[in-house]
Design a protein that fits this description.
Elements lengths: L1 H4 L5 H29 L1
Length: 40
């Protein structure tokens, strides 16, 4: 989503795509950290 945000024509679409991409990255990082902690 972050990469596709740069193809957006309108600024509102850019911001929505960037926000969605950031949410996915943060959620993925949190899930990965939880997995690593639970395995230790």
């Amino acid at each position: 989503m972050v990469i596709s945000a740069f193809w957006a024509v309108k600024w509102s679409a850019f911001l929505v795509n960037m926000l969605g991409g950031v949410v996915y990255v943060v959620a993925g990082f949190m899930i990965t950290e939880m997995l690593v902690e639970s395995l230790a």
